[in-house]
Amino acid sequence: MADIVPAILEKDFREIKNKLTFLRGLTKCVQIDFCDGVYVSNQTWPFASGGFEDADFLKIMNEEEGLPFWEDFDFEFDLMVAEAVENFNIYMKLGPKRMIFHLGAQKNLEDFEHFLEGLDMYIRDNVEIGLAFKPNDDLSIVSRLSHKVDFLQCMGSDKIGIQGEKFSLKALEDIKFLKKELPGIVISVDIGINLENTESILDAGTDRFAVGSSIWKSPDPIGALQDFQSLA
User: Fold this and answer.
1) Buried b (16+ CB within 10 A) or exposed e, 43-58
2) β-pair type (74-80, 98-102)
3) Which CATH superfamily does the domain covering 3-231 fall into?
4) Is the pTM of this model over 0.85?
5) Vertex 94 angle, CA 142 and 131, to 5°
6) What is the DSSP letter of 103?
7) Is the separation of the CB atoms in 36 and 14 below 8 Å?
């Protein structure tokens, strides 16, 4: 059985809250996509509305409130941002259960390795750390870093930060290769997931699916989510 994680990519905090309201009782884990307009061209909350000075973001930072329905969900943060490591403590204040760092966003791999190795044991015990990679990334580097993270996230396209991209066949081969090369590794897949290709991606060894547009652009989002859950 693979987990289905609905992915929310929104510029407006109110829309994030609306989608979380919709998902209550339907799923436990939700992915929030952070796009800064630097590492990727798109911007999502809070970068689309003032960055770390956004009013809702500041309320969470000041512990006046948490993310909407924080008691109902385990939040997975997909950090498609240029300075995820530098701002790690800021993102931690949002209360993630999982944090995903992108290989392509790292300026210095040696510094990134030292960051992973130096994470506090409390964080390691309470937050899962993931490494995301794209089809054109070097799998030898992914393999090297895999032992320092809890899971890998295979991006289904080289074009990230938006929803609705087509799933790459190269990504499918990457999953098969890594599952053989790294027995026991947990692999999540994000981008391009639909009801037609889920079975083949699952057969490749996928453990978790992050699904965005195939849920939210469906005329029946609840039915679409339940269809994915039944397939996985």
Assistant:
1) bbbbbbbeeeebebbe
2) parallel
3) Aldolase class I (3.20.20.70)
4) yes
5) 5
6) G
7) no
What tokens were used for 170?
Answer: 């190269």
Beta bridge partners of 30: 75
Q: Please state the domain extents for the chain.
A: 3-231
DSSP reduced 3-state for 61: helix
Task: Provide the residue-wise pLDDT of the chain in tens; the chain has 232 residues.
Answer: 799 999 999 999 999 999 999 999 999 999 999 999 999 999 999 999 999 999 999 999 999 999 999 999 999 999 999 999 999 999 999 999 999 999 999 999 999 999 999 999 999 999 999 999 999 999 999 999 999 999 999 999 999 998 888 999 999 999 999 999 999 999 999 999 999 999 999 999 999 999 999 999 999 999 999 999 998 8
Q: What is the DSSP letter of 228?
A: H
Residues 6 or more apart whose CB falls under 8 angstroms from that of 88 comprise 99, 115
